[in-house]
Write a structure and sequence with these properties.
350 residues; Rossmann fold; 11-stranded mixed sheet; 21% strand
Length: 350
């Protein structure tokens, strides 16, 4: 495993107190740091998704590293409790946001979470989130903002509001690259991406404010986009990090919410995901549940989906895209160290 994980929050470096370059804090980095890419994961998920999200991103970084040494450290916004995040693991491995704001990292990944308020600006973490975004401009070479984090980021950066769809964008969609960009190099012209969202960002809003659209989903607008703003900000509305069975688990969760009368509408089946025979069985269960909201439906659903064979059609493209991202960070870091008169080391992933 090329990825080295931060062993404990207690081993995180303390905030630095030395002088910084007014132009870019990375000017103070040591030559020794040139041989490793330091990535921070700001994990905002809750419940069972917290550990799953951490594992998914770490696994993806490991697969994408191509031999490039990577060090991953973990952070959380204020307000995320041990209970929400999985107890002891969170307490022992995640550092508070204040520690992140006192460091410089080569790259940062910020996850989303289910919204609690109608407006993102009313979310309890909004002020903390925007502090992290402003920090990322000057303290990273590049950052990734996933799903809801992407929506919140462009709202803060350029006042771009997300728009709610009439139906949930849920399933595996064909995404097409748009033009040439280092982040999409080596990708096929069309590749698969899982999506799970009600809201999206309008293409015209992004273009008007200087964003580069990297890929588009047929019938569902923008997939990935980027913007240079002190650092390279990369945004994903989809979830390339997802495991093969993540959409299935989300579907089961949402059916459970319907059965328990937490929501009024039965969830849509994920598109282009289940085998047709499994889809037929699940539609029969939906009809049954619409007449009788009984827990027994959940047992039948579990049996139906556990027997189906799922295919991960996005992993190869996910690895390619994240390898491109790591290579872009490595190139920017090497150029900066060279300009600073420091040895850049071997910072090119294969």
């Amino acid at each position: 495993m090329v990825v080295n994980l931060e062993a404990s929050r207690h081993t995180h470096a303390r905030p630095s107190t030395g002088p910084r370059s007014a132009r870019h804090p990375h000017r103070q980095r040591s030559a020794q740091a040139g041989n490793c890419i330091a990535i921070g994961l700001l994990n905002n998920m809750a419940g069972s998704a917290f550990k799953a999200t951490e594992r998914q991103f770490v696994s993806l970084l490991d697969a994408a590293s191509g031999g490039l040494p990577i060090h991953v450290s973990f952070y959380a916004l204020p307000g995320l409790t041990d209970t929400e995040a999985g107890g002891e693991h969170f307490a022992s491995h995640y550092a508070p946001m204040d520690e992140l704001l006192g460091k410089q990292l080569d790259g940062l990944i910020v996850t989303g979470r289910e919204p609690r308020a109608p407006s993102l600006r009313d979310e309890p973490y909004w002020d903390s989130f925007t502090q992290v975004l402003e920090w990322a401009r000057k303290n990273t070479f590049s950052s990734v903002w996933s799903c809801l984090a992407a929506h919140a980021a462009v709202l803060h950066m350029d006042g771009i509001d997300r728009r709610r769809s009439s139906e949930k964008n849920f399933g595996v969609f064909a995404s097409a690259t748009t033009g040439h960009h280092p982040l999409t190099g080596g990708l096929p012209s069309s590749f698969h991406v899982p999506h799970s969202r009600w809201n999206g960002i309008d293409l015209d809003d992004l273009v008007k404010r200087g964003y580069t659209v990297l890929s588009r989903v047929t019938g569902n607008g923008v997939d990935a986009f980027a913007k240079e703003d002190g650092s390279l900000f990369v945004f994903f509305q989809g979830h390339l990090e997802y495991d093969t069975d993540t959409l299935m688990r989300e579907y089961r969760r949402d059916v459970g919410r319907y059965i328990r009368r937490e929501v009024d509408s039965y969830p849509l089946l994920p598109l282009n995901y289940f085998h047709p025979a499994t889809e037929s069985a699940l539609r029969l269960l939906q009809e049954k549940a619409s007449h009788f909201r009984r827990v027994s439906v959940l047992h039948e659903l579990a049996a139906a989906v556990e027997e189906t064979k799922l295919a991960n059609t996005w992993h190869e493209s996910a690895v390619r895209l994240y390898r491109n991202w790591l290579n872009e960070i490595a190139a920017r870091k090497s150029a900066f160290l060279l300009a600073s008169g420091l040895p850049a080391g071997q910072l090119a992933a294969r």
